[in-house]
Specification:
By secondary structure, the chain is an all-alpha fold. The chain contains four helices and no strands. Helix 3 crosses helix 4. The longest helix has 26 residues. The protein is rod-shaped, with a radius of gyration of 34 Å. The N and C termini lie far apart (111 Å).
């Protein structure tokens, strides 16, 4: 009789441990419920992804950087300085033309 009860106890314990692993894998349906939320998030992230119109100064400076063959940090630094010069030059030229 003790053999049967110990066997039953061992079987119950093993089934409880194995069921824990089965229940741990059932979280997939919760991810399906979250899917519509990510779709609305994707729609929200598309709006800021639209590019702003670039100014004439920015386009001119980009063309000059292309002509000089600049890339990376050098290009970024050149464009920054170029835009500052064009903005300062344009602001100074406007009052002089009036």
């Amino acid at each position: 009789m003790t053999k049967i009860s110990s066997l039953a106890t061992a079987t119950a314990l093993a089934s409880v441990l194995l069921m824990g692993g089965a229940f741990a894998q059932t979280t997939a349906p919760a991810a399906k419920d979250a899917a519509p939320k990510t779709e609305t998030t994707k729609a929200d992230t598309k709006a800021p992804a639209e590019k702003k119109q670039r100014s004439a100064e920015s386009l001119e400076c980009s063309k000059e950087a292309d002509a000089k063959g600049l890339h990376g940090k050098e290009r970024k630094k050149f464009r920054s300085e170029c835009k500052k010069q064009k903005a300062a030059g344009g602001a100074a030229a406007q009052p002089a033309s009036k």
